[in-house]
Amino acid sequence: MNPFRLTLWGITAMSAAAACGSFILQYVVGMNPCVLCILQRLMVLAVGIVALLTALNRQTSPAARTVSALFISIPALYGMGVAAYQIWIQSLPPGTAPACGAPWTFRLRDWPLFDLYEPIVRGFGNCAEADYVFGVALPVWSVLYFGFVVLLVWAMWLKTRRI
């Protein structure tokens, strides 16, 4: 199997683990995600789905690897931007942080098939309140995850561009 495709499978597994971790933190540990946390969760799922779909392709041509890297980078960079924005919100003095907006369950309640995806978008936490895992704020973990994905996919793209 070519190394780029193997990297895509690794990103898929890493995304599945990150998504499972977010669900465990919400439904087992009891951390209530905010609007921005849920948006980051959706971007983790998007990265995983795109990586899975591109890994199913043979990835033999340089053009296919370039398109795959671009498609994976788009949700990863968006998720990184959302996480960086949340880090900024959490760094503001108490009471000065802007509001996050309405919870996703309120925004999407009239959409079709809402009952199917409602557990994914459930949450109404405060974006300015930091939750920590191993002493590190969750948006920092998100930035590290998304940054690692982008660096990994483009490093493997550079390494395999002549294959």
Question: What features would you highlight for this structure?
Answer:
globular; 163 residues; mainly alpha
Please provide a written account of the structure.
This protein is mainly α and 163 residues long. It is built from six helices and two strands; from the N terminus they run H-H-H-H-H-E-E-H. The protein has helices at 3-29, 35-55, 62-91, 104-107, 114-121, 138-159, and strands spanning 132-133, 136-137. It has a two-stranded antiparallel sheet. Strand 1 and strand 2 (136-137) form a beta hairpin. The radius of gyration is 17 Å and the shape is globular. The relative contact order is 0.20. The mean pLDDT is 87.
Describe, in short, the structure shown.
The chain has a two-stranded antiparallel sheet.
- Rounded average pLDDT: 87
| Unreliable stretches | none
Strand content: under 5%
Structural class: mainly alpha
Number of helices: 6
Sheet having the most strands = 2 strands, antiparallel
Question: Strand order within the widest sheet?
Answer: 1-2
Radius of gyration (Å): 17 Å
Q: List SSEs in N-to-C order.
A: HHHHHEEH
Helix content: 55-70%
User: End-to-end distance, in Å?
Assistant: 12 Å
**Oligomeric state:** single chain
β-strand number: 2
**Looking at the structure, what is the overall shape?**
globular
